[in-house]
Amino acid sequence: MLPPKQHKAYCAFYDSVRDTSILDQRTSTIVGLSAAMACGCDP
User: Fold this and answer.
1) Residue 40 backbone zone (phi > 0: left; psi -120 to 50: alpha; other: beta)
2) How many Å apart are CA 1 and CA 25, to the nearest integer?
3) Rounded to whole angstroms, what are the CA distances from 19 to 3, 4, 22, 25?
4) Distance between CA 20 and CA 42 in Å, rounded?
5) If you average pLDDT over residues 9-28, what whole number do you get?
6) What secondary structure, in 3-state letters, does the chain show?
7) CA dist 17 to 4, 5, 39, Å?
8) CB neighbours (10 Å) of residue 31?
9) In whole angstroms, what is the distance from residue 17 CA to residue 4 CA?
């Protein structure tokens, strides 16, 4: 659905958020839900 450049950027962001070596699991989940809600997606 996204152009290749934007898809690559989204995947990089998603992978960095899901990496729990930097953020704990709770914070990772909150950031993911916040990003989804900001884009208008229902969690």
Assistant:
1) left
2) 28
3) 24, 22, 6, 9
4) 23
5) 82
6) CCCHHHHHHHHHHHHHHHCCCCCCHHHHHHHHHHHHHHCCCCC
7) 20, 19, 16
8) 15
9) 20
Q: What is the mean pLDDT of residues 12-24?
A: 80
d(CA 21, CA 42): 27
**Residue carrying structure tokens 């659905």:** 1
The letter for the amino acid at 22 is I
Average pLDDT along the chain: 81
Single out the residue of 3, 25, 5 nearest to residue 33, CA to CA.
25
